[in-house]
């Protein structure tokens, strides 16, 4: 409870404390079981910001669960958010931010624990989301670093002695499906601790014990993680009423607890005008150079086929709405684009949908442009459909060919894209292309701003891609945003 | 541990057959008037879509009953709803610990005559129902605890009205209410964090299920596609063998694999069996662990359109290897001979769909078409015979063997209603008359409650009514109640031991009243 009682009574220069307590600055492992609460004080701003950043992740995980996403889909959805809000680099990365990242991870976990311990329901949800986050990181961790982390935890798992293992050899290999047990060691634990493995009949059970091979230890670790977290949450809950909290914290904690819902990309920063000029249907072709691959592909398909299927229209319409096209101009855009059909057909079949997306029909909901996560995980395109994410839904060869037509032909970049896509890191591939295409502007921006944090951010929304791209090529052109410094030499729009 | 006025378990265990004078079984109650509930002389069948049940909230004292529609939780009672339809399996329940007990004949306490039902039920509750052992079973201690007091009971009245969230501090209060309401059946739910009667005053977080036995339901209606002797609610000694072997397989896995010891097998009514796994370790399992056990044990999956219903990975998990060993013993007598499922050629096509080799299938089909109604046992043997005679050039014998294993599993492996097992808050019909037999149990030969009551009269004519002998002991119910008592004593002994150990750790934890 130390951290809670010592929570920031006043804003304190974090760096000073950071340096004054080297033990707290030492996080040898990327992964954390969150056993010891932090003891070093942080500023009120950090306190809140870190908690909010973690909350975004947990909220998104919960939203994935609500939509019954599979573990790989959850990983695809959470990956970009983690890179953006809560990165954790491996020791092998040699990143200079390792300790800072781990500290933020550590603190934010404990702050949210405090916020979410207050009710049974919140505790349950918190524990669920945190355990999924932990599993995601655990499975993605470097094998050797993971092993070191495991050893640091000192679990009380009972090792199965070699002679017992030999005696049960046949049953053990039948249960695990392993042909050879040479070099595989087993733990013996109450089966409840690995109920997920029991559920899939992947371990041998004898007299209430499960025989778990080391290679399946993630289940054990996760069960341990959840058990400890649940217990700690109970303890925190019981201690809550007695906590000597700084009264400035209570509203923050309450607010955090309320905010445990899936965040959406805030597209309100997207400009409705560019360079002070209203967008028209005719502007779109000239802006395509700033579109991410998914929208480029939709645009090219639309121009080629004079048509887009339903989900393609949906994805693209919301995108151009997001970049600032008015509903009137959108109707013009779609009408002229669908040049093979009659006015009557358009009025009957398509007008309603365009207006609907603008919140002018039906439920009148103001739909937000789709995020990368939505595009990646919802409604995979069938043949002859053009929506989706090219990095995910194209074959690698088609993807490389398409990148070539947009002028991306640098061998190293393409090699990187291949590797990203094979590793299911679609957003990384997209960001890699973005960085390549905007290399010159990014360098200039960096020089101007001496390395502001936003340069590190990973793009996780097509409209963000557009506004970043447009902003970089046209510094100062976006209203409502302070992209770049005033640069008198900026290119005029388009 | 101090004795309470309830009476102590130690007395029972020390003098197993000593006459007891617990109030619920006193013969002096024999002449009590019937309950107020009007018997329905000609019960109306409830509509088949009885998804919405009526919950009757009884205000104690003023007798005012308020009806409100209660949407059945979707994890509750799917099977029980069927029971509302047409099937009259009223009270019943036969219990035994599979391995321990030899098998006398079973008991069906369902009244034989519908018109007499409420009266007969009332007399049964009054004179024969082992309330005291039921209490000890659920309470895990001779002295009333929250294990009993916070336990939900649900009553189905003769009118089919359904009352949930009933709870009772002692077995006397339970008995009193059951005699007052004379339910046609009652169910047992979980122990909650608070008294179920107080739930309206409590937040969701403060009122939630805490513990319940792990339960299993095997019902012969789930075997309709593999049994030929009967269908729907009908059963006979032949198809009862499905239940017998299912109990063997599940009981073995629950004990040898999962480590449970206190497993009560109960005749569920007309069509199957319930298991109540009562170990503390089982009772405290949350839904994810219950789901894990259910999936571990579930092998036959999928509805009528599912095609092949057994899809297990190779090598077979040791649980399946052992289960196949058990099934193989019974496959020929129970399936091939008694059920003879592939006798006509159309039915035999179903077997062929489960086999892997087209050329072999063609050869089998040819042979069977020329021999009308060739017995299943011969057809089964034909598979290996034709396979080894080279009926198919490219036969994958390992695959054929696996497919034959799958056939055995599909036809005989226990078919579980897993939804019953997966949820902590699922209610299950209470056991109440106890039967041991699994091996030689013949559910058709069960005496009725009316017969049991006649047995009391006969006994009393011969021996006089001394008042020192329980009514159940005068009937063929005696071995089952004794069995239940032995089971309960074993459970309570272990719980007492656990509690003592724990109390040794943290002194001052009050178990006392
Ligand atoms: Zn039958």
TrEMBL record, chain A:
Pfam families: DNA_primase_lrg, DNA_primase_lrg_N
Keyword terms: 4Fe-4S, DNA replication, DNA-binding, Hydrolase, Iron, Iron-sulfur, Metal-binding, Primosome
Domain DNA primase large subunit C-terminal: 289-466
Cofactor requirements of the protein: [4Fe-4S] cluster
Region ranges (Disordered): 1-24
Textual note on the cofactor: Binds 1 [4Fe-4S] cluster.
Organism superkingdom: Eukaryota
GO function term, MF aspect, one: hydrolase activity
Basic and acidic residues bias locations: 10-19
Family: Belongs to the eukaryotic-type primase large subunit family.
Role description: DNA primase is the polymerase that synthesizes small RNA primers for the Okazaki fragments made during discontinuous DNA replication.
PANTHER family for this protein: DNA PRIMASE LARGE SUBUNIT
Stated name of the protein: DNA primase large subunit
Organism: Discina gigas
Gene: PRI2
Automatic annotation (TrEMBL), chain B:
Pfam families given in the database record: DNA_primase_S (PF01896)
Keywords: DNA replication, DNA-directed RNA polymerase, Metal-binding, Nucleotidyltransferase, Primosome, Transcription, Transferase
Gene3D superfamilies: DNA primase, PRIM domain
Residue ranges, compositional bias (Basic and acidic residues): 52-67
Biased composition (Acidic residues): 71-89
Broad class of enzyme this protein falls into: transferase
Region (Disordered): 1-89
Enzyme Commission designation: 2.7.7.-
UniProt family annotation: Belongs to the eukaryotic-type primase small subunit family.
Protein name per Swiss-Prot or TrEMBL: DNA primase
Annotated organism of origin: Discina gigas
């Amino acid at each position: 409870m130390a951290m809670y009682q010592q929570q920031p009574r006043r804003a304190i220069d974090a760096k000073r404390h950071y340096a004054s307590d080297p033990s707290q600055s030492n996080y040898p492992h990327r992964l954390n079981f969150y056993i010891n609460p932090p003891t070093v004080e942080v500023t009120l701003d950090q306190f809140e910001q870190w908690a909010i950043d973690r909350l975004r992740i947990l909220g998104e995980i919960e939203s994935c669960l609500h939509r019954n996403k599979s573990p790989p889909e959850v990983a695809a959805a959470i990956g970009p958010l983690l890179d953006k809000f809560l990165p954790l680099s491996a020791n092998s990365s040699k990143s200079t931010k390792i300790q800072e990242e781990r500290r933020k991870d550590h603190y934010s976990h404990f702050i949210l624990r405090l916020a979410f311990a207050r009710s049974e329901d919140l505790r349950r949800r918190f524990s669920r989301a945190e355990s999924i986050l932990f599993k995601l990181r655990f499975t993605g961790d470097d094998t050797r670093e993971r092993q070191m982390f495991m050893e640091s935890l000192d679990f009380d798992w009972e090792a199965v002695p070699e002679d017992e293992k030999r005696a049960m050899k046949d049953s053990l290999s039948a249960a695990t499906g392993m042909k050879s047990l040479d070099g595989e060691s087993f733990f013996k634990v109450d089966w409840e601790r690995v109920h997920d493995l029991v559920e899939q009949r992947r371990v041998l059970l004898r007299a209430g014990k499960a025989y778990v091979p080391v290679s399946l230890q993630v289940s054990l670790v996760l069960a341990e993680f959840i058990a400890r977290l649940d217990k700690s949450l109970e303890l925190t809950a019981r201690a809550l009423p007695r906590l000597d909290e700084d009264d400035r914290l209570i509203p923050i904690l309450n607010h955090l607890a309320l905010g445990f819902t899936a965040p959406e990309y805030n597209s309100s920063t997207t400009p409705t005008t560019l360079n002070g000029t209203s967008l028209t249907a005719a502007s779109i072709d000239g802006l395509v150079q700033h579109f991410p691959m998914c929208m480029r592909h939709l645009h090219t398909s639309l121009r080629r086929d004079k048509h887009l299927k339903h989900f393609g229209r949906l994805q693209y319409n919301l995108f151009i709405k997001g970049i600032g096209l008015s509903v009137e101009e959108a109707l013009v855009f779609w009408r002229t684009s669908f040049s093979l059909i009659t006015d009557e057909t358009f009025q009957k079949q398509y007008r309603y949908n365009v207006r609907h997306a603008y919140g002018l029909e039906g439920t009148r909901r103001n739909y937000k442009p789709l995020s990368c996560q939505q595009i990646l995980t919802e409604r995979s395109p069938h043949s002859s459909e053009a929506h989706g994410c090219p990095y995910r839904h194209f074959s690698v060869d088609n993807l490389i060919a398409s990148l070539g037509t947009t002028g991306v032909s640098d061998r190293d970049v393409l090699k990187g894209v291949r590797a990203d896509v094979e590793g299911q890191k679609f957003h990384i591939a997209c960001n890699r292309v973005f960085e390549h295409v905007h290399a010159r502007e990014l360098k200039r921006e960096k020089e101007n701003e001496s390395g502001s944090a936003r340069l590190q951010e990973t793009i996780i929304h097509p409209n963000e891609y557009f506004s970043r791209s447009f902003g970089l090529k046209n510094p100062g052109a976006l209203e409502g945003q302070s992209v770049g410094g005033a640069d008198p030499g900026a290119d005029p729009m388009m | 541990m101090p004795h309470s006025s309830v009476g102590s378990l130690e007395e029972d265990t020390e003098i197993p057959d000593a006459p007891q004078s617990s109030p619920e079984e006193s013969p002096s109650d024999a002449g009590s008037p019937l309950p107020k509930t009007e018997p329905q002389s000609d019960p109306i069948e409830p509509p088949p879509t009885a998804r919405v049940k009526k919950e009757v909230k009884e205000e104690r004292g003023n007798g005012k009953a308020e009806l409100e529609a209660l949407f059945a939780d979707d994890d509750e009672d799917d099977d029980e709803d069927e029971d509302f339809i047409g099937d009259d399996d009223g009270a019943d329940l036969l219990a035994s610990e599979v391995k321990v007990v030899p098998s006398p004949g079973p008991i069906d306490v369902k009244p034989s005559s519908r018109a007499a039902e409420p009266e007969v039920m009332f007399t049964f509750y009054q004179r024969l129902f082992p309330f005291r052992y039921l209490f000890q079973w659920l309470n895990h201690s001779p002295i009333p605890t929250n294990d009993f007091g916070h336990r939900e009971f649900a009553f189905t009245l003769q009118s089919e009205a359904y009352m949930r969230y009933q709870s009772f501090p002692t077995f006397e209060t339970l008995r009193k209410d059951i005699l007052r309401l004379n339910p046609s059946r009652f169910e047992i739910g979980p122990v909650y964090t608070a008294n179920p009667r107080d739930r309206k005053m409590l937040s969701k977080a403060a009122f939630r299920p805490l513990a319940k036995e792990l339960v299993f339901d095997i019902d012969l209606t789930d075997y309709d596609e593999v049994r030929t002797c009967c269908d729907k609610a009908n059963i006979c000694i032949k198809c009862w063998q499905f239940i017998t072997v299912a109990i063997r397989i599940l009981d073995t896995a629950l004990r040898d694999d999962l480590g449970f010891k206190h497993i009560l097998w109960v005749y569920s009514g007309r069509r199957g069996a319930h298991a109540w796994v009562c170990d503390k370790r089982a009772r405290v399992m949350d839904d994810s662990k219950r789901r894990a056990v259910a999936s571990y044990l579930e092998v036959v999956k999928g509805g009528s359109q599912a095609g092949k219903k057994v899809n297990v990975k190779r090598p077979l998990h040791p649980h399946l290897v052992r289960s196949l060993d058990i099934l193989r013993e019974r496959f020929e007598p129970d399936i091939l001979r008694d059920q003879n499922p592939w006798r006509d050629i159309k039915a035999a096509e179903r077997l062929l769909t489960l086999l892997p080799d087209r050329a072999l299938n063609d050869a089998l089909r040819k042979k069977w078409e020329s021999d009308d109604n060739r017995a299943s046992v011969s057809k089964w043997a034909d598979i290996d015979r034709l396979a080894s005679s080279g009926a198919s050039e490219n036969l994958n014998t390992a695959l054929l063997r696996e497919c034959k294993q799958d056939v055995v599993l599909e036809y005989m492996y226990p078919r579980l209603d897993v939804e019953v097992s997966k949820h902590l808050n699922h209610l299950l019909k209470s056991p109440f008359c106890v039967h041991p037999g699994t091996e030689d149990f013949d559910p058709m030969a069960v005496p009725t409650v009316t017969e049991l009551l006649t047995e009391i009269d006969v006994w009393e004519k011969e021996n006089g009514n001394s008042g020192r002998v329980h009514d159940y002991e005068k009937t063929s119910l005696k071995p089952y109640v004794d069995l239940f008592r032995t089971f309960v004593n074993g459970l309570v002994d272990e719980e007492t031991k656990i509690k003592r150990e724990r109390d040794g750790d943290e002194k001052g934890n009050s178990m006392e009243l």
